[in-house]
Amino acid sequence: MDVPLELSAYTRVLKLASTPEWTEFSQIALIAGAGILLIGIIGFVVFLVMGVIPGTGV
User: Fold this and answer.
1) Could you list the residue ranges forming a coiled coil in this record (predicted)?
2) What's the rounded Cα separation, in Å, for the pair 17 and 47?
3) Domain range list for the chain
């Protein structure tokens, strides 16, 4: 394991990285929030279906 070589690779990546603009950040946050909301809705629908069908619910 060559630690100085790995540290130089990490340093190179950090030098290339930059903070996103506000519009890019807000678009990413909106898409991530929509994905979380979609997964939650799907889970809630599955929960409702399992409650309606006898023998499959909690």
Assistant:
1) none
2) 42
3) 20-58
Chain-centre distance of CA 57, in angstroms? Answer: 29
Mind giving me the DSSP string for 8-43? HHHHHHHHH--PPPHHHHHHHHHHHHHHHHHHHHHH
Q: Which residues contact 56 (CB under 8 A, 6 or more apart)?
A: 49, 50
pLDDT digits (tens, 9 = 90+) for 26-47: 999 999 999 999 999 999 999 9
57 CB-side CA count, 13 A: 10
Of 34, 58, 35, residue with least CA distance to 46 = 58
Tokens coding 7: 């540290």
